[in-house]
Known about the structure:
Strand content: under 5%
Number of domains: 1
Low-confidence stretches: none
Distance between the termini: 62 Å
Number of helices: 2
Radius of gyration: 22 Å
Number of strands: 0
Shape: flat
Largest sheet: none
Amino acid sequence: MDKRKGTGITIFIFCIAGFFLYAYLLMLSEWSPIVLQLSILMIAGGILAAIAWIGYVMATTKPSSATITSDD
């Protein structure tokens, strides 16, 4: 088995195990409220970070010299 295939299988197994750990923490443990709160916080943070990155790139990118103009 080559290195790439082994790495893929390892990632696959860790993702499945992570899902079951998350499901256990969310459904069966006393940590359920904090796990839910942290999950929502991470989702909102990820979305807002992506939007902030778009804004940063738009603010710091120099305009290109090739602009499209319409001759109306």
